[in-house]
Amino acid sequence: MSDKKHTLAIDIGGTGLKASVLDGTGKMLVDRVRVATPYPLTPEIFLNTIAEMIKPLPPFDRISAGYPGFVRDGVIITSPHFGDSWIDFPLAGALAEKFGKPARVINDAEVQGFGAMQGKGLELVITLGTGLGTALFRDGKLMPHMEFAHFPVRTKMEFNDYVGNAALKKIGPKKWGHRVHKTIKLFRDLMHYEHLYIGGGNAAKLTPELVGDAKLVSNEMGLTGGIRLWDDESTFGGTAEKPKPARRAKKA
Question: What residues make up the domain containing 87?
Answer without folding.
Answer: 7-108+223-236
